[in-house]
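Hi, here's the filled form for the chain we discussed.

Project: internal
Contact: R.S.
Residues: 281
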Amino acid sequence: MEDIIDVNQHVEESIRKRFHKEIFSKFARALNEYQMLKPGDKVAVCISGGKDSMLMAKLFQEIKRHNKFDFELVFLVMDPGYNDKNRALIEQNLKDLHIPAEIFKSDIFDSVFHIEKSPCYLCARMRRGCLYNKAKELGCNKIALGHHFDDVIETILMGMLYGAQIQTMMPKLHSTNFLGMELIRPMYLIREDDIQHWRDYNGLKFLQCACKFTEQYYSENGDPTGSKRKQVKELIARLKKDDPEIEMNIFRSVENVNLATVITYKDKSGNRHNFLDTYNE
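And the returned structure, exactly as it came back:
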């Protein structure tokens, strides 16, 4: 018990002191800048078992401790079919970090295992749907996911290079299938390097992707190879060597869109507009 208390105390102290600027301040800034939290909110903090969502849970606990206004937190872990070892690791981390999470089961891994086309995309959508459903059942009006800054800029480049479109991962979204529900991403401004540094500084071990497709690769190689996201991550790392500002420039590119220099774009309703529409005006 003494060791468990020491682990949690060390983790919480590191958030308040060692990683205050790189992590906690950016978490609080995202909440404020994108207006993610309001009085009366009940937020389902969704924990996958990885470093990002576990850190997010601790950051929410720290924000709650400040108690600037009234809101509620529910910590949720969906087990989509983890093996016993991975399930046990999640449970131990929750215990060590004093995160009072509810774990509920689903059979998503089995459902998508034999899907040949885009199984990861389908899995992500199904997992999100299950989380929305459980959160709504518990009276929540928001779910929080642990996507971070690197996820955002990688998504921007993936859309351009592989999807032939300019789009980004938004900091918050209204759910189209669950009326009155919102998705928020409070880790939006936090760099993955800083999350990894926090994890290693505290000597913590978390799940990576633990589905049936990738757990063998992780155990053998540390990372599944050949994914488009991995290729984009490596591309950004190479570009960063020549220009340290490249990551922020990618991020700011979707904050500084000039529609007067865009050939075609879609408005909020999905209507397409072409520069020729107003060219002679």
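Let me know if anything looks off before we file it.
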